[in-house]
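Why do we bother with holo predictions? Because pocket geometry can differ from the apo form. Keep that in mind while you read this record for 6-O-phosphono-alpha-D-glucopyranose.
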Amino acid sequence: MAAGTAEFVVIANRLPVDRVVDPDGTTSWRTSPGGLVTALEPVMRRKGGAWIGWHGAADEKLRPFTHDGLQLVPVPLSSQEVEEYYEGFSNATLWPLYHDVVAHPEFHREWYDSYVAVNERFAKRAARIARKGAVVWVQDYQLQLVPQMLRKLRPDLRIGFFLHIPFPPTELFQQLPWRREILEGLLGADLVGFQLPGAAQNFVRLVRQRVGHKTHRDAVYLPDGRTVIAKAYPISIDASGFEELARSEAVNARAAEIRESLGNPRKVLLGIDRLDYTKGLRQRLRAFGELVAEGSVTVDDAVFVQVATPSRERVDQYRILRDDIDRLVGRINGDVGRIGQQPITYLHTSYPREEMAALYRAADVMVVTPLRDGMNLVAKEYIACRYEGDGALVLSEFAGAAAELKQSYRVNPYDINGLKQALLDAMNAPRRENGRRMKAMRKYVVEHDIDRWAGRFLEDLTAPREPHDKVFRPPQET
Ligand code: G6P
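The structure, written out:
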């Protein structure tokens, strides 16, 4: 296939922009918030290059366009593909399977067929625009077949893949009827990145057992002489960008206003999540509700602000969750609230970065309790915003971030009593204790920011490589 002009190409399910309709009826694009986008945007800008992704609407073809200096290449999806590839295989098969099956994954052959067709479309688009020898970086679970498809079309490219969500233990991955296809899809990359070393090890073990390739530590040796490296690159945030925002007068004024409108309680607890069943919202709200019901916490003492960003609303499990959380919040507030004093302020909406920063500034305790999470960038954003070194983070040991943020109050979110105790500990710890913890975590997050993450990945991806049969004969492993 003939080469294009882009030297660096990012392929992700979504483009890093949202469409907005202005009051005069014209539409424009706005760079969207969210982990993946926040993560890659600065790298894209610095490197220049193209971003291939879906623009979020069904049955609509758009031409490539430039926004804010980013070259964007929209990939169309039909409404049937949105149902089968996006809502179906990506978010009702892979998402629950990769997150410890906390919801039941559904396996449907026509969903997988759609996943193949859409992955092929992304791969072809990239093959057309990438320059000879270009670097292509494929993102996340929606596009695991793209590396292999792209390599077939363009063997000259350097291809990287990064999985933003957990990679499951081998026992769970084996359930997938298309396990071999997914593994071979990923092996099309030169470098496969994961959030945690354990995930990379799961992958390498599966490749050895299921595909039969030789492996040694983080390397997979393919019969054609290629070596694929599988390694951990824990993702991070634009820490200085968040801190700068958090230091602004407007954000601090807004934070004071938030506390004021909550009735200036002694402690503000905060949760910010996509409304997703992996996030442990039920457990967290129950734990707080019980503390208030028992009188361990009074409504003057503490309020809980939970922001739940609408997400994947047409997928059944997400609908069920939304109703459950509505009911749970209503019941807790009904049972233990007083006139003008609700223990839980629940906001089913998404906010711009400024408002998020103000919430982080207003919160004494950040509560992040996923049942399973690849990383959790909210935990890191909170830390970046606490530039005075105060505040406390309650963090699930099942979030990738727990491997790095060791000074958080760590919890097993399934253990409601443990969760209650951690909330109390975080709320009642002496200032000095929380200061000591926060300062250590800040040092870590500031040093390990998104630039370093992207830099490390791209450096490893672009490092010169020899075919393995020339330099190294891998030892036999059993
Ligand atoms: C997670 C995934 C991303 C995804 C995001 C939002 O962070 O790792 O790939 O883009 O959720 O989900 P959505 O389905 O709205 O793209």
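Residues 239-448 form a domain with the Rossmann fold fold (CATH 3.40.50.2000).
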